[in-house]
Design brief:
single chain; 166 residues; alpha+beta; three-stranded antiparallel beta sheet; 4 helices; 23% strand
Length: 166
């Protein structure tokens, strides 16, 4: 458990110069004394020493499924990508880790398959994803491209309506 021992000083942090109180803490897990701010530690019960204690490796780092998962996360988190993150395509919290993703998607996987979203206007999640061949994916992408164009046209009309209405 973390125990705050005493306040030490207020310091300016960040670009806006927000004042933050720095305090001395004691971690009962590892008997470490350290200085930090209460905002950083208010939801934790340790200094960080327990962070990796219970993590178990899935043993699949570097494999093709792991790279597919990483690519999916990257596309969703890139808000400059207009086909994924930029239009709100996301994934469930449980897929933040490879283990959560693999638990849902291992069934039906084969090295000749790629991940596919059944409805391209929805995010990545178990019920909306399937494994398909590259050939099937290419055929589907032509249809998805037409769907995306329709989506953009509708979005433009919506924005034009908003501008007209003030």
């Amino acid at each position: 458990m973390l125990q705050k021992l005493r306040d030490i000083e207020k310091r300016e942090v960040g670009n806006v110069g927000r004042l933050v109180m720095f305090s001395e803490f004691h971690c009962s897990y590892c008997d470490k004394l350290f200085i930090g701010n209460k905002d950083s530690y208010k939801r934790q019960d340790h200094c960080g020493c327990q962070r990796n204690k219970d993590k178990k490796s899935h043993g699949m780092t570097g494999t093709r499924p792991y790279r597919i998962w990483g690519g999916m996360k990257h596309r969703c988190e890139d808000i400059t990508n207009p086909r994924y993150g930029g239009r709100g395509i996301n994934y469930p919290y449980s897929w933040k880790t490879f283990g959560g993703f693999w638990k849902d998607m291992e069934e039906g996987y084969s090295d000749e398959y790629e991940i596919d979203r059944i409805d391209v206007n929805l995010g990545y999640y178990k019920e909306n994803c399937q494994w398909i061949t590259k050939k099937e994916n290419i055929q589907k992408m032509h249809q998805d491209k037409n769907d995306y164009i329709t989506y953009l046209e509708n979005r433009i009309k919506e924005l034009e309506r908003r501008l007209e209405n003030g």
